[in-house]
Amino acid sequence: DAGVTQSPTHLIKTRGQHVTLRCSPISGHKSVSWYQQVLGQGPQFIFQYYEKEERGRGNFPDRFSARQFPNYSSELNVNALLLGDSALYLCASSLDGTGTYEQYFGPGTRLTVT
Amino acid sequence: RKEVEQDPGPFNVPEGATVAFNCTYSNSASQSFFWYRQDCRKEPKLLMSVYSSGNEDGRFTAQLNRASQYISLLIRDSKLSDSATYLCVVKAGNMLTFGGGTRLMVKP
User: Fold this and answer.
1) Strand pairing partners for A78?
2) Which of A42, A98, A108 sits opposite B94 (nearest CB)?
């Protein structure tokens, strides 16, 4: 079975642009979480979605938004990119949104903002 | 103060050595505790859960002290393949909070 997949693998954007990152969870998983990992730091929670609804939000500005589709895949959108948004963006899926089950991480999208 | 704090290292140890990592957390409502392993430029992967009674998985032993809000990981008989960053993770509700990670380098 395929694991969590993310696209694109790498991305280079300019300050002020917007970006859309995509995630497909493991088949059968209904919850998707997004994390930002800046170089040298641990991942930071951005959002959790379950059954297409936002179930949790980390301490990120409104420039960050996300959504989940009926097939449980998800998109993370970031507007008005800043240099500080350069990071590895990780998507994790789990069976449900209760926190009972393990989260499995995808390989991430490495975003560079110049 | 960070919610989950770890010594960033690096810890440079020879093969066969025993090494210990520590972690403290500030949210007393944290319900579950984990150690994740992250190889360079890869995604984090669950190494083991951590229980109050302490638990062991082969060469790895994890301990939790809820009163002190302290978590530890002990690696015995280090292998070259253990070289990675070890992330301490706490969960409250459905949100994972990661520490900054401790880098381990095992040398021949």
Assistant:
1) A19, A64
2) A98
